[in-house]
Amino acid sequence: MRDETMMNMNGDRDVQILNFALKLEYLEADFYNRVVAAHTARPYLLGRAESVAMILQRDENVHVAAVSDMITRLGGMPIEKPTFQFPDDAFRVNVAFLRLSADLEATGVMAYLGQGKRVKRDKVLQFAASIYGNEARHVSLIRYVWGPRFSPQPLEEPKNMRFILAKIAPFIANDPNPPMM
Amino acid sequence: MTVIDLPEDLGQTFAHKSDRFYFARLTGHPTKVEKELVMALNSSQDANESRATKPSSPARRKLLGMGLAAGGAVLAMGTIGKGIAKADIIDFLDGPLDLDPIIINFAFELEELQVDFFERAALSRGFNQLSSREQSTFSLIGMQDRAQFEAIRNLRAKLGIKSGNSFESYNSESSRRPRTFRFGGAFNSRESLMNEAIEIKSLAVASYHGAVTHIDRGNLTLAAAIAGTDGRHLVILRELAGLDPVPSSFEEAISPQDTGNKLAKYGFKGGGLR
Q: B97: helix, coil or strand?
């Protein structure tokens, strides 16, 4: 009965947006968990990349817990974690890790920014903004370690849900959740 | 599922009202502060309009014009933040108070301050003590802050918000915003330059995050787009200074009033919000 109520609440726009965010956070957290595990088994991250990977792993796992918690507080049900897949070289080659990490973080920034104006509740907006700002720091730091300009443009670029879902689709091997769009 | 405690400052921000403040009507007698505000509002017949859009309420326009000129909105903001009833003000305004012009002018001056700092930094003695990577970082930040400043200027023009100089011109001379800000000895050495840059950027980022629920959703994307880039700047400055670049999993939010007070030492006026 409780599950049914929570599923009904999942029609709420803020809950939908948070579940969309949760999918991205699951993706990022899963990626960094695998990166750190792979590096622990066979070191391949060079210099600052190692400690930065651990910072990002910490933050993305915290974000997963926080977004799930916020969804529950709103009366919704967090989506299940999909099964993800990534190119193997991201777990073997330093620069491949940096490139994919920068791409994933940039995707997160664009996704949060694209949803900001759609959020209804102020507390959800404030919450999402605090994660968005953290993701912006991530992408800048990882690009700085990688080498290209840490801030390629003066304004972050928003992207809508359809764009983001298409962008992350190659990383999703199996998704037990109903389609978001 | 792990339940985490949100940062304390985030929790405080959750208590803020929506992007447009609807004053709660209570039945009690107005406080002294409320009476003074209403008297100030009633005496502001000659105040200029501060915004051309949303002209539905002459009273609202009057408040905004007066607020930006004489600090009435500062009073309103301060008291709203404490949750005090504003029954008399509701009667006077006959509707919600649109804070966008105030917040946007605040952001405008915030960007102006950053532009002034990073452009002057590039000509300073301290800049010569920076490594080449640090110099290119400062130059990029200055360039992008200038672009952000122009973006907000364009938004103000689009919304019909008057320029800072214009609304301050009928205020007292002492409150006129300086052409340049005061940064003391910040430009004298690498260390002071880095410290000041980090402080200014930290306040800018926290301020945008603190204002996120106070701005109309239609104008939110631009403000947030700037906040994100400022966050990019900040993290690299911290990295270069040897500080933890990402000390928290959540971006800090501080109210614009509080950041405005901290920036006052530079000659920051707060666009009418302080």
A: strand
Interface test with A, best of B5, B235, B254 (most A CBs within 10 A): B235
Q: Chain A residue closest to B133 (CA)?
A: A144
Q: Which residue of B has its CA nearest to A60?
A: B249
Strand partners, A83: A174
Both tokens of B235, joined, read 């993290």
Average pLDDT, consecutive stretches of 10 residues, N- to C-terminus, chain A (181 residues): 62 95 98 98 98 98 98 96 98 98 98 97 97 98 96 97 98 94 76
> Which value does ipTM take for this structure?
0.94
- Of residues A81, A61, A106, the one with CA closest to residue A172: A81
- Residue pair B254/B9 in contact (Cβ under 8 Å)? The answer is yes
Q: How far from the centroid of its chain's Cα atoms is residue B15's Cα?
A: 19
Token pair, residue B121, equals 């930094």
Residue B119, Cα to own-chain centre: how many angstroms? 20
B 20-79 residues inside an 8 A Cβ radius of A: none
Biggest CA pair distance of chain A:
53
Asked if B100 has any chain A CB less than 8 Å from its own CB, the reply is no
- Three-state DSSP class for residue A173: strand
The angle formed by the CA atoms of residues A176, A181 and B3, to the nearest 5 degrees, is 55
| Chain B residues close to A119, C-beta within 8 Å | 217
In terms of C-beta density within 10 A (0-12 exposed, 13-18 middle, 19 or more buried), how is residue B5 classed? exposed
C-beta atoms of B6 and A127 within 8 A: yes
Place of tokens 């730091």: A141
B21 forms beta bridges with B97
Please provide residue B214's backbone torsions phi and psi, each rounded to the nearest 5 degrees: -95, -5
Compute chain A's Rg from CA coordinates: 16
List of domains in chain A: 3-174 (1.20.1260.10)
How far apart (Å, rounded) are the C-alpha atoms in residues B121 and B110? 17
Smallest CA-to-CA distance from B47 within B199, B166, B178 is with: B166
What DSSP designation does B46 have?
A: T
Tokens 């990402």 correspond to B246
Give pTM, 2 decimals.
0.77
Give the DSSP per-residue string, B139-155: HHHHHHHHHHHHHHHHH
Closest to B223 measured CA to CA, from B256, B176, B267, B186: B256
Task: For residues B62 and B60, give the distance between their C-alpha atoms in angstroms, rounded to a whole number.
Answer: 5
pLDDT digits (tens, 9 = 90+) for B132-144: 999 999 999 999 9
Q: What's the CA gap between B274 and B268, in Å, rounded?
A: 9
